[in-house]
Amino acid sequence: MADPDVPRLEGCLVIANPRAGAVTEALITEVTERCARYTDVRVVRTGSRGDATRLVAMDVAAPHDGGLRVVVAMGGDGTVLEVVNGMVTGDRAADGVALLIVPAGTGNSNYRAHWGERPWQDAVDQALGAGRPAPSRLDLARVRETGELIVLGAGAGLTAEVLSSARDIPLSGKDRLKAGLEHAAARFSPYAGRVTVDGVVVHKGDTVLANVGGGRHRAWRYLVLPHSELDDGLLDVCVVGADTDPGDVPALLLGGEHVGRPGVVYATGRSVTFERTDGLPLCFEHDGELAPDAGSRRTIDVLPAALPVLCATAARPDRR
Fold it and tell me: I want to staple 135 with a disulfide (CB 3.0 to 4.6 A). Which of 31, 263, 266, 308 is the partner?
């Protein structure tokens, strides 16, 4: 007998981003055929920035027949962010729709947060097949100053600078991000910063990086927030001060070994503010996108249980 808490499948909308690093027509066909084993499938290819948000918003607003409509985000973390923006109205996505990620971008850290390192084929089978779990409601966050949603996480300092460094590196995928972090770390100078969590200043002084989330990993391999949970209603924040040489950071992040070092703060809360206190602009990113003009201050607020997701049952498959 079917589990009454697990809604029947109404269909899948596959949002494929051909500009994502690993999206090919062959992969689109493979994903479509795999999903079609379990339910009706419609595939839409995006053509420009913002298409995924618009297309998903239209699909979510269309009449439902009471089942679960699955939106498959096929691309990287940027594609996932656009899809989520189409799913969320106000501070919460409606019931009756759920996100499923197929990793086909550069970092794919959202996929790792949901499914660990298992193949996407296994994830689709578990999410859509017999015995599938009910959607989990995971947390999101929002940038207070701009209203932008955050899915994976946000960062200031070194982990934002890497996005600039990686642009000119003639590599692709995760190797480009790795080389970009190492390049940025070798040249990075700490900035004068302050980090406040729920109204309490937890760090003030020279700052190498400040990250908040969300997912534990960034750029797939870097365990920036090793204690973060996706569904606890809290934001994890980690600040690395100038006691740590920026050049040592890439190796430390691989295993989460930065946590517990002198000058490193790890905390949780519902609201986190990053500031630059010397009057210069804050180098700030979220979900792998640099903010063009972040000013000197950014505040991130948690949105608890905002997003229905088809993911590994416990929503935290990868603890290392």
Answer: 308
